[in-house]
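Two proteins, back to back. First:
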Amino acid sequence: MKPIGITRPVATGAMALEILGLSKRFGDVAALDDVSLTIPAGGVHALLGENGAGKSTLVKCLVGFYRADGGTILLDGREEAIPSPRESSELGIGMVYQHFTLVPSMSVAENLVIARGSLPAILNWPAERKALQAFMETLPFSIPLDKPAGALAAGEKQKVEIIKQLYLRRRLLILDEPTSVLTPDEADEVLGYIKSLTLSGQLSVLIITHKFREVTAYADDVTVLRRGRYAGHGSVAALSVEQMADMMVGGQLSRSENTRQARKAVADQSSRLVVENLRAEGNNGLEVLAGIDLAVRPGEILGIAGVSGNGQKELVEVLIGQRQKSAGSMWVGGQPYSASRAEQLRYKVNSLPEEPLRNACVGTLSVADNMALRNYDQVPLARAGWLKRKALRQQARSYVETFRVKTTGIDAKMNTLSGGNVQRAVLARELSHAVDVLIVANPVFGLDFHAVAETHARLLAAREAGTAILLVSEDLDELLELSDRIAVMSEGRIVFATAAEQADVRLLGHYMAGGHERGETTA
């Protein structure tokens, strides 16, 4: 590959991209395995896939955060090495990230100007403002240039992130969930303008989105990844949303009845966890739960399926007390439930949230202390308000032995454990006592085969012991294997529910893709 130099003549107009056999490993994990895709100059290409499919790894190779282990990147037919974000920027590649990168204390104008990187010691600010104002007048949406970025609403910040890349005259623009904090009208306004730039030959676009409506409205072609591998592609005009969803979840694979372990039938008892008309807002103030109804009986696993970003994360957060509901009711064992710590202890509601090191642990505390987060103020770890360190350490040793947590010792910091062992430690804490309700989210994400099998066995054992389990997962195979019933979430609602043994993978994919016109909607 020819090294990139800053003396290269600056090209303009839309860029053609071709990726051939791109691969990237992190230790024993293949994040990308022989992935290829092509975007012609002026094309809009959608990249689809569930969390962990390899989308972020691919685009980080394009913008220079990662160096691919194998494969070729061609820009306008020329093979390129992209060793860092600086070289990526010099080539004309820009990216709008899910998380904002603006400097809050600076004005919109200042954020746009500093994005150029190399600046003279003394800025001709009147000339800069004049150029910025002229540029802003070409856009269909306006943002006050003098307003501090920190004072902008979330939707305005997202627009400024996009404006920043357009102001830098990128030739290839990568959009990572660019409308997550925009209303539908704002999303159409922004994406419609970007589409017009591609049609006029000024820009090529690679968009990562979980919103099929945006794919069908604005993309020309689509590539689907699944577990780091190429899962399919085609022109948007030739594919239905059901076919795209089918590629994402592996619906083309027939489900073997032998994957389900023999288990006792769910007893016909009153539901232990009941949720009615549950509503909640996201961090941007927009509604993300739009009236959820569900019920889980003792000894039952209710699986929640759906394309990521349709409210599953927020549902779990409300149920375990990490997000306030805006309306609706929750009951556990027939009693009103608001997910306070005291109620979770009283009603024996435990959880294994997604990314447990971040959401269920204190990484800088010891393994022993983390294992006591549920009961540090309960007998036998506490008496008369005093913490009994000896009992705490004895409990931790027992958990480590029973759940086979590999650690240098119970005094090791939690953030020194591998992902699988963090999972074991949290499961030990959450399942070592009687549990009436267990809330679980993507429990085996990133784990090796042995850890996956072990975690699944623990969940089934809890189910057999009479625990009511709500299992949220983006792995449809996992839901089909473990669940007694499966419900599909889309746009913050339950849109379909069925017994797992009668589940039709293609029908699940239909509802995951936004097909709401039929089906029982109460889980």
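And the second protein:
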Amino acid sequence: MSTMIRNLLASTLCLVIVLVLVIAVAPAAFAIGPYVIGSSNTVTADPTVPRPATTPCVVTLFTDYTFDNNYNLNPFSYTPPEDCPGPWAKVVLEVDISVTAGNQFDRTANIWMGGTNIFFGTTSEPGATLAPSWHVESDLTDYSPLFTVAQTGSIYLGNTVNSTYTSIQSATATLEFYPLKKWQPAPVTANFVLPLSSGPLGGTVTLNTGTDTLAGTFTLPKNIERAYLDVYSQSQIGDEFWYTCVPNDVATELQSCGNTGFRETEITIDGQPAGVAPVSPWIFTGGIDPFLWFPIPGVQTLNFVPYRVDLTPFAGVLSNGQEHTVSVSVFNANYYFSDTATLLLYLDPDAKEVTGEITKNTLAAAPTPVVSENLKVNGANITGTVDVTSKRNFVISGYVNTSHGRVTTTLAQNLQFANDQTFNINSTTYVQDIQVNTNAFSTTTVSRPDGPSTTYMRYFQFPATIDYDEFTESNGNVAATTKVSQNYQDQRLTTSGFRPAAFSQVTNAGQYQDTLNYVTFVNSNQSANQHYSAADSSGYFYFCDVQDANNELTKFSPTCAK
């Protein structure tokens, strides 16, 4: 990151830091909304979506839909709101999910509209007397065109119910459509929203290996000015804990999965490299040690955030009237990743056709990770480190001849990935300490003849540390102490003619620890906290901190979402 950009980010975000420090010292109330001191029910520090002042029209997608033995895409009918025909100031999805008390795995949940994903998350695990319930929200305003026509949607929440897995999942979802105020301009949204999914009702696509692809082939409008791809790559089965994996040559002796601890999502257009999306280290509520995650689940566990890839340099190529295939794959996938993506197109309103081409593309088809092994093996005793790193620097530039002149978009991105693992293994101990992170810094510069250049800067990182210490107690029982830290950060700054024009920042961090006896399945010394802060140049600010101990909520900020 250049010194100038660092200074711009620092100057625009300094006020945010001051506000966080002021609010952080405020005393916690006893109970607000879902936050009840002493409760084990699922809570997060996540905010609700800010709403306009207008009264929304509410469309119910489904109510108390029950999932017992159900691994289907379950259809529902959608009709746009008659009293709020749009355009809308904001579109908000609300989802409420509950699980009956008993025994159940964490499960994946998706909601689809005409094949397009509008929600992707996982569920909390219940207990013998704990029936968790929770609420999530998403801002879908960018997807507004999707909701203008009547169509069939579907919900998926794969679940098994039998004599062993006894808990039943149920869900309710609504869409809120907020009308514009009088004379209020409509927000800029995509003109076309196109799905990359398994079929007309939706569904993710399974990527078992690095050569498997999620693909969509489209005949697109001829006047595309901007294009983006929202990408979800969810790790599953052998790849669920991909960041714990090691090179194949030491996987057996380290008792771990293979293909190294590096994964990355690759995007191509007609086979040409077009973008990269980091894979988020999401941990589900059954992950590693289930007692880590209640009442506070891991960062984004209940409501994943997609990574948006800027495909605007390809806008001129995509507008040439020919069929184009957008594909997604996961480098090093090792059974498996569950993927979906959404293509968002923004059109030139004053031109039926535009022309353009790619003028520069230095993005390599695949990364070249570097593996370092430094292990000492003495019989059953193994100590040392296994590391894998990857660095990418690329530039993609293209232009579009629009109704208002030639617009050139140049994307420069720097990605740095590192996974450092330390092992100490013997007959009574298995220690694996992991530090994994992707730093992604991008600048997108848009040059046009009718005004100054605009630069969009984004700094993204989602580091995680996992310290796992399995040991044999004096009575022969096996137990493990696990400590996990996650810290999602997304900072953005827009400049016009080198002057700051807009900024936003999100920090979502969690720390979790627990000791679990694998014989008695009794845990001890559990504690967790999650911190969420967000702000932008419109004046929006949010801060929330929640804490628990012994699997009960102990503290929350009075500013947490009600």
